[in-house]
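Schema walkthrough. Field components (list of strings):
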Amino acid sequence: MAIHHLREYIRPKDLGEALAALHRLGTSARPIGGGVDLVRHTPPDVSALVDMTTLPLAYVREEENGLHIGATTTLAEIERNTSLAEYADGVLPEMLGRVGSMQLRNLATLGGALVGAHPWSDVVTVLLALDATAAIHDGDDHTVLVADRAALRGSLSGGVLTEVLLPARSANVHAAFVKFSLSAFDVAMLNVCACVRCSKARCEDARIVLGGTPWLATALPRAGETLQGAELGPDSIAVAATTAAAEAQVGDDRRATAEYRRILVEVGVRRALVAILGRCKGGGT
Amino acid sequence: MSREKQRGFRVVGTNATKVDGLSLVTGRPKFVADIDLADTLIVRLLTSPHAHARITAIDTSGAEAIPGVACVLAHTNTPTPRFTTAGQGYPEPSPYDTRLFDSKVRFVGDFVAAVAAESQEVAERAVRALRVSYEQLPAALSIDDALADGAPVIHDEPDAQGIYDALHNVAANVDIDVGDAASAFDACPVVVETTCETPYAQHTPIETHLVHSALDSDGRLVLRSSTQVPFHARRIVAHTLGLPLHRIRVIKPRVGGGFGTKQEILLESIAGLVTLRTGRPALLQLTRHEEFVSSRTRHPMRVRVKAGAEKDGTLRALEMEALSNTGAYGSHALTVLSNTGSKTLPLYNKASDVHFYGVALYTNLPVAGAYRGYGATQGYFPLETAMDQLAERVGLDPITVREKNHIRSGESSPIFEKLGEGREGVAFSIRSCELPRCIEIGRQRIAWDERRGRRNREGSWVHGLGMSIHMQGSGIPQIDMGAATVRMNEDGSCQLLVGATDIGTGSDTILSQIAAEVLGIPSSHVVVTSSDTDTTPFDVGAYASSTTYVSGMAVQRAAEKVRAQILDVAAGALQVGREALSLEAGRVVAADGRSASLAELCSRATHVVDQFQIEATASCVPEESPPPFLASFAEVAVDTETGFVKVVKYVAAVDCGVPINPKMAEGQVEGAIVNGIGYALTEHMLFSSRGRVRNPSLFDYKIPCAADVPDIDVVLVDSYEPTGPMGAKSVGEIAINAPIPTIANAIYDAVGVRLTTTPFTPERVLAAMRKASEAP
Amino acid sequence: MKIETTLNGCRRAVDIRPGETLLEMLRRLGMHGVKEGCGSGDCGACTVLLDGSAINACLAFAAKAHGHTVTTIEGLASGDTLHPVQQAFLDEGAIQCGYCTPGMVLSAVDFLRHHQRPTDDEIRRAIAGNLCRCTGYAKQVAAIRRASESEPREDA
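Field assembly_structure (string):
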């Protein structure tokens, strides 16, 4: 429904103009990608929107230092992208196939998903597991780890997200995503992303991330540590999954109780790691 | 289509394209809101934040002062007669317990006031400017609350009529006996019992309730409403607003889904009153939130079934006790309750002693009303669970125990007579029942014998098979009436005027097929006008699975009368006796081979000699309600680690008599089954401790999407109902009753747990499995 | 504010409010085939094509159409010739009340642009964002499958 208190819709010609508008209008202005979150709910103090999709920020570029995904790349474009289909076992398209609907993915952007940071967000869970970095422009260019939420929030209050950077591709990095939801077009009652660096099924480093707990994605460091230096197999996977279930902070909401979520944590982490085991053995050096 | 060809049908039994198909697939403006809204006032509602309260003061001055506000309605300035919102035959078997706006609110979401303004923005601002003071009252937020000693009296108004026992919040009560069930149980060697519970669920038609009202150039009130019951709407609006009925016209354009929630006169009087007070057109549409909370829902029920049998599985006694939550107002309370028993218990007529008892209780919760299945959905859950339990106890296959006990052609049940729609029913015998064939076909197609009991595994998923059988009804005997007018145009085409209400079900199409069949013309030569109280004859509307059987028979009769008139004209034109003439394929043919086309004859009757309008009207009040039958089979997979349930395969074999349009009949079954799957697995309205709906959105109330369900394998079994038009019965409701018990029985086959509360969420399934594995 | 957009092949200049959604704008312009079912992106009845991609018009600001192409159901047929998806819906009996139909058809049109021989599972996932309460999806999936098997044609 029309948001009546919105007075200005700005279509900046370049990043400088976008930034200037945001600085001029302060907290009464918001940058938007697809604008989906803002259409659904516009805070009463927001009277202006700055449409970032008019800027050339929709791209996927592989460079030496990693994969650069422009902030206004739509989720559908990411889902279809051939480079990303081969990055970390294609965990991004794997996840995006479970996100919302085709219509939502055609409109929603990576930047919008990261900044919107819905607690059930599957996107943030995967970005966290992949150790993504956010690039912010506030006159200068800065990068902030997606995992560093406080710093990210701080940077965004003075600048705009321009892209998300994923670490350089490596054949040793494997990932898998698991989502539990009540219907095929529903947000997660729990999502899990595991990302493991391993060679010949010996794990060098592991990151296990949960989201929709019902809170926003967080990593489970203790669970990840159980895999460090371990041979990835049914035993080490069982330990990691059990540790994750004990470590996880879960709660009740309309979709599930905390108790049930805790059960899903063990199952989800185990299934993600089993999938990774298959991918480790299947490919990798 | 060879069966229909055997019966000599040309048009009936074919998949004629829907008459409105082209306009719908090209997005033509056919729905209520598809008009230029310039000069139309937008109406928005203020609803109650409290579950139970008296309105002690209401100050509309702030709202009225806002520029652009045309009209504010509240209990202080609106008509006072009580009515029922239930669109049922007059006199309606539902209590007159509702006022347009009352001085008391009875659930969170109850209507408090309405504002009409130049724009939605102004109307919403004006609603926020209304100042209402409430004196909160204790609330009854469950069946148990309503039954408790000292429960708050929800309907304490002195002028309500038709409430069974208002002081105890009992809206309706039913108690019937056949024989002596109590003694019969005592004599039964095998007795099983189960209690099942189904929650609040909502129809979620993709188009919410809406109505457009305006005065025509003669000052008559014209209501364009998304309704299932245009004629009931006209009558009830007249009663509510104190207008003569003939000063109101109700038109139903295309409707974006009803499923029972639009068998309710919910918004028409409000919009109509705005138009009367302002002289302006007005549009009132519920938001999706309001559709969940303030329109109508399924009756939540707790239903206990007890079945007594011999050791060989032959039923002797059945008892059903239904506790129904009708919410804050009693529309459809009695009739849904009655149907819980009347559309279920006769299926097992071998049980000679039957007791059905039920109450419908008021609560301070959203209002339950008509919903496809209409009580049978809630009743089949425990009944078909009990039959599976009985089968297990006596060591028989679930199919066998049903085959031993279900009603067959030529048989009857005393319940038909004892239990009607809110009053005594009508005795009749089954003239068509292909349930045995339905069972046989379904059994094969689901691979029952090969796959049941195997618990085939795929990783953590275990498979199981379940089945259930069902009957419904076709219309309400001796109560429903539908009429049709067939009028020939001079080119041999015809106008078909029916009150019958196409809400997406395709009745316009199948009724045109029936007329075309009788007149020997293509169905594209039948021009259908429907559901306009000014121009079409009376019809009760789209409910009780009545349209094909009742309205269809009216069409058949009218067309037959017209055919006789055409033959008379032909007798004159061809100078032969009537008995030497037959009408086939658009021509009247004499025994000696001479013929005349319909166009020639109609032109002759219109322009040339002995001119008269070839036209006839006919009505139908059904004497019986021949049930359709359905055998439902499903294979599910249960994830033993998480409790998730997936329906892997679904087979429904249906006896609906002759399907007038097979693809459309299949569509009814497919849609109803998917709705039922949602009701079994994901759908429930959740409430706060203060009676507020916590999930009034499609975001939080999950209905199945295409990726949630498999293909539904529907088989329309060859059948013929002698009392039905062209041999048809009905098919609109029956299938929605099947998924809950079928899936429950399949889950039992897979993982050995019996679930008795829907929805079977993963959490509940897993908890049940864990509890079962802990049991000694 | 003023925007310029190409709507069903016609270039239009439209006055909009900054906070207006694409759904409101389109219905205001007489595109009644764009339906409102929920206003929150959960039902898909308002699906339209933005530069050929299916989106929920209720979730897009009207300003998003500026400089872009919008196709509604009204713009899908070529004169009297229906798009193969429309024809397939008619032929398969995939339309009951018709309220979800425009959105469902447009989702299918976008989907079939990218998928030549889809499996039923792929079809079902593609239309997961188009809720229907009437049909149970069975004949809609059959229609989309049928349309995928027919001649490819010039993009809408």
